[in-house]
Design a protein that fits this description.
single chain, 417 residues
């Protein structure tokens, strides 16, 4: 453990939040390498819209499966060892992209990258559950979730610089090396959990062991999985297709994408932090967990339909509309991934977070292929923005109408293991 951490757990908890934020930033940088570098890659490996969508599918299906399996693995192995294995895997997989000579190789390494990155957010949620008290958890998860924006903001300009200086293969080698450097930092720094925090916030059953079947049978888990399925179907479309939309429809080149594509991702980072901060503020002012989470989730979902207007406005305003949507999406996402730590005992946090992320990734995989099919058969981006703009509203209505009251599980409410 860090020197002095035993005597000052409150001070070290935010260091660990920062450590995990860097990991999440690296993960989003890694997954953006292909979309941002796609125009350069296509000069070596020709790819159609449909093949591009299959590359996203190859990432998201194993990502979804390992989100669920990785969450359970983390509950069994513990956060420190589990996160190390996850990060080594995905960093090596990212570097392997640089060796690709054809579509089939890209498909295989994209699959490997998805397998590794699937455990990232379950690990992050466990760190929050281990170290952060309830009234600050959504703030902590908002900071961690803002790492998605950091990685995505850095990706267009940094990848653009590397592309112009060294070619697209070096993009993947450098990104993989950054992940392996983080592994050393993690192994040297992270230890255990905050004893004081555990005593106060998980006295409700730190030792309670929920079976995977118990978790699957809970209605709230099922509702959250569905809500994440809907919201991430839209999010992964925006995430993976925004650079390509700017290339194909708005006439951008690599330089223009480097200049402008980072702006919506910067907005997403602000949304991650401010959404979590506002929800934490509501709790500190005496509102219930249920009200504090649902109010912010509802506000976040309310503004997502602005993407429907993107094809109708000049490019500068379109970037602004994307920025609003990205802000609200990541405010939403940070809160959804805080709920496992809010509601469930520590022994089940990774499993629940993994299942929620599984639902999101499956949605992204399915609708990513649908998007590629529609674009390849005469439909325009306008149709897709119209459809995806409704998905967060549907997800929020499911939580509001079917999820019941959000509150920490008490001993009598837990099914027997």
């Amino acid at each position: 453990m860090l020197r002095g951490a035993e005597n000052d757990p409150v001070g070290v908890e935010w260091y660990f939040v920062a450590l995990v934020t860097v990991a999440i930033a690296i993960s989003y940088f890694d997954r953006q390498t292909l979309p941002v570098a796609i125009s350069s890659i296509q000069k070596t490996i020709p790819l159609s819209n449909q093949q591009f969508s299959w590359l996203q599918f190859a990432f998201l299906i194993p990502y979804a499966l390992l989100y669920a399996a990785g969450g359970r693995m983390l509950d069994l192995l513990g956060t420190r060892r589990g996160f190390l294995l996850i990060m080594v895997w995905w960093s090596a997989a990212c570097a392997l992209h640089g060796l690709a000579m054809n579509f089939g190789f890209l498909l295989a390494v994209r699959c490997l990258l998805g397998m590794g990155e699937g455990g990232g957010f379950p690990a992050a949620t466990r760190v929050v559950a281990e170290w952060i008290p309830p009234e600050r958890r959504s703030t902590a998860m908002g900071i961690i979730n803002a790492g998605t924006a950091v990685g995505s903001v850095l990706a267009p300009p940094l990848i653009g610089l590397v592309l112009m200086a060294s070619g697209w293969r070096m993009v993947f080698f450098a990104s993989g090396a950054a992940g392996l450097a983080w592994v050393v930092w993690w192994w040297a720094s992270y230890r255990g959990s905050n004893p004081a925090s555990i005593a106060s916030l998980d006295a409700r059953l730190v030792a309670q062991r929920l079976s995977f079947r118990d978790v699957l049978s809970m209605r709230l888990v099922q509702v959250l999985v569905f809500a994440k399925f809907m919201s991430d179907s839209a999010w992964y479309f925006y995430l993976f297709w925004l650079p390509k939309y700017l290339y194909d429809v708005r006439g951008f080149d690599v330089k223009h994408v480097s200049y402008f594509a980072w702006i919506p991702y910067a907005a997403s980072g602000a949304g991650s932090f401010l959404g979590g901060w506002f929800s934490s503020l509501l709790i500190r002012r005496g509102h219930s967990l249920d009200v504090s989470r649902k109010v912010v989730l509802g506000l976040s979902a309310l503004f997502m339909p602005v993407v429907m207007l993107v094809p109708l406005v000049p490019v500068g305003l379109a970037i602004g509309l994307f920025s609003i949507a990205f802000f609200c999406q990541q405010s939403w996402s940070g809160l959804i991934m805080t709920l496992p730590a809010d509601v469930f005992p520590l022994s089940a946090v990774g499993s629940v977070a993994g299942l929620i992320g599984f639902g999101g990734a499956i949605g992204g995989a399915i609708f990513g292929v649908v998007a590629g099919f529609l674009l390849g058969h005469g439909f325009g981006y306008g149709t897709l923005f119209l459809v995806f703009g409704t998905f967060h509203i549907v997800g929020f209505l499911a939580i509001l109408l079917l999820g019941g009251r959000l509150q920490s599980l008490k001993a009598p409410d837990l099914p027997a293991s």
